[in-house]
Amino acid sequence: MLRLLHILGSFAVLGSSVATTWPNHIMDELEHLLVDTDGFNDAGLQKAITPCSNYVSGSQLLGRETAAQWVRVAFHDFATADVEAGTGGIDASIGFETLRPENSGAAMNDSLGFFAPFVNAHVSMADMIALSVVMSVGSCSAPSIHIPLRGGRVDATEGGLFGVPEPETDIHTTLNQFSQAGFSQSDAIGLTICGHTLGSVHHAGFPQVVPESAVTPNNTGGGIHFDATPDVFDVDVLNEYLEWKGQRGGPLVTTENITVRSDLRLYLSDNNATLQGLAESSSKFISTCVSLLTRMINTTPESVRLTEIITPNEVKPVNISLAVDSAGQVRFSGYIRIKSGAVIIRSWALSLGFILIACVSHRITWTSRSGASSPAFSTHAIAAQTGNSSMFGTTFYHFFNTTLDPAQGISAFKIMVMRSQDQSVQTLENGREGYPIEDVAVFLPHETTIASDGSLSLQAAVLTAADVQNVTAVISAPSPQLGTISPVIAKSVVNFERNGVRGLYTLFTATIPGVPNLRQTTLDLTAHGRGSLVYRDEFRRIAF
Ligand code: HEM
Ligand SMILES: *[C@@H]1O[C@H](CO)[C@@H](O)[C@H](O)[C@H]1NC(C)=O
Ligand SMILES: *[C@@H]1O[C@H](CO)[C@@H](O)[C@H](O)[C@H]1NC(C)=O
Ligand SMILES: *[C@@H]1O[C@H](CO)[C@@H](O)[C@H](O)[C@H]1NC(C)=O
Ligand SMILES: *[C@@H]1O[C@H](CO)[C@@H](O)[C@H](O)[C@H]1NC(C)=O
Ligand SMILES: *[C@@H]1O[C@H](CO)[C@@H](O)[C@H](O)[C@H]1NC(C)=O
Ligand SMILES: *[C@@H]1O[C@H](CO)[C@@H](O)[C@H](O)[C@H]1NC(C)=O
Ligand SMILES: *[C@@H]1O[C@H](CO)[C@@H](O)[C@H](O)[C@H]1NC(C)=O
Ligand SMILES: *[C@@H]1O[C@H](CO)[C@@H](O)[C@H](O)[C@H]1NC(C)=O
């Protein structure tokens, strides 16, 4: 007993002092939304804008486009930033501001309503707004235009300043507003024409700009495009304006009512100089848009610390879990997601098809609770499913499901990827210590049950030898809040009670009230052992 405690103790210290790259919950979650966009394990975000002309919140005959709405929503959230005061920017305050005339139109609630089911303890609505810009621009361009994404934005709890420029706003006020948000005159011109390569101005919402004649049976919202390709992020809007052809820059340039020609006023404010500079080449236009849109989505309240840039993981552990079954057996299972680049099977796969993919097998090795290795601590991950991503290429999912010796346990695992092209093996160690995994206090999401009154019964297993005093969890539940369609994360603490024994583990259980969003409700489990020993199983979904 003493020996085991000593071992547990050293693990706890080790676990807290070693810097690892995984898990990083914000980055892991956003990476999933960004990369897993089709096929197996699809996160479901890109579907809304596939094809890019799609309108996800209503009839296709309305003349509306979700991809364009997402970019406009981000602009409206950003536009009231005050960089000197360090307030506003991308903070989802737009959700509280939808009834302001300056935010009129369906786009704000359409978009936030679509994003709401994705929000959880580590995915803020503000990060969803930023991600949606990255996804719109990346999906609606070929070759795909990549805006770097960072995470970590924090949602506002109330509306912010007024001041989003409107079609009626005079040029002086408009430029001052952009300047307050950190954007110079040429930045403002550039950002606006970059945004206005997607979508339309609609009679419904902007009758002072677009006449009723735009309304037709298959365009009932009366949308008039900014350029010939409203569903492609490209330079067309700029060329059409400068060459005065096609849509000539769109309704905010050409409308009969001079008062609402806001784009024309902006573009002429430096005698077209900025736009002529951007027209040098398509790549100049694109690279400027990437830079300006990056600055836009990274404009946040000064207290926000953004993460590193989120790049697709070449190899990523997915849904790794431990389960303690009724016989006290410990099951270790999960998926290893591998991007096509990591296993170079393309040229072979083409000729041999299914057979080759099925032969690609990767090994998972682990170290015991005390950090020991053994040839027995190993299993294979078998090719299971294929995912698709239009922006980042194909992903391959490899599944493993094995038993562990509960006396030995597990503290970390490593992934050995075999490259079928040359049979070479790459070992992924997540820094040096491997991918950490908690086996002293284990939440059991597969055993969550829902009672007829909606309440939830939660189960956890804690190694009996760890001699824990108490087990608690912080529940993070996305919940409705007044004034915005965006959820707030309601946190509550629940105490677990002892509930029998399973092999070397003691079971603990707790009951909580029903939650509005089962999929995105998560918990952080904490078990207090002797002295200052603490075991944590963090950011687990409460049910599978
Ligand atoms: C002076 C600045 C701006 C003004 C006055 C302005 C005004 C407008 C108006 C009136 C619409 C029509 C909305 C509708 O009918 O649904 C619109 C659409 C749009 N705006 Fe702007 N805008 C400005 C700058 C920007 C910027 C900086 C961006 C993004 C970087 C942007 C992105 C968009 C997009 C993507 C649409 C199409 C929305 C859709 O099709 O639903 N705008 N803008
Ligand atoms: C992935 O995309 C390819 C090409 O578009 C398609 O043929 C294939 O069926 C897709 N696979 C999945 C799993 O969706
Ligand atoms: C809408 O109808 C018009 C006239 O019938 C047609 O020319 C146009 O292509 C249609 N547009 C769409 C998006 O279906
Ligand atoms: C700016 O461009 C517009 C549209 O092509 C054109 O009508 C206008 O004359 C130009 N103005 C200047 C000062 O170049
Ligand atoms: C032009 O638009 C302004 C602002 O929306 C409006 O007050 C004015 O009545 C409009 N003028 C005409 C002739 O429609
Ligand atoms: C792993 O295998 C066991 C035994 O066959 C099964 O009960 C369990 O559901 C599997 N786990 C997963 C995640 O598929
Ligand atoms: C759990 O036990 C730890 C250590 O004994 C103690 O510090 C903590 O206050 C306890 N928490 C609860 C909720 O009882
Ligand atoms: C958007 O949704 C919020 C929250 O449900 C609501 O209070 C607001 O009135 C809605 N705005 C519009 C323009 O419908
Ligand atoms: C991973 O877990 C989530 C949440 O329980 C689930 O929705 C998703 O389908 C799982 N993915 C895989 C590949 O098992």
UniProtKB/TrEMBL annotation:
Biological source species: Mycena venus
The protein's name in its UniProt record: Peroxidase
Keyword field contains Heme: yes
Any Pfam family the entry gives: peroxidase
Alphabetized Gene3D superfamilies for the sequence: 1.10.520.10, Peroxidase, domain 2 (1.10.420.10)
GO terms under biological process: cellular response to oxidative stress; hydrogen peroxide catabolic process; response to reactive oxygen species
UniProt keywords, alphabetically: Heme, Iron, Metal-binding, Oxidoreductase, Peroxidase, Signal
Documented EC number(s): 1.11.1.-
Occurrences of domain Plant heme peroxidase family profile (ranges): 123-344
Recorded GO MF terms: heme binding; metal ion binding; peroxidase activity
Signal peptide segment: 1-19
Family: Belongs to the peroxidase family.
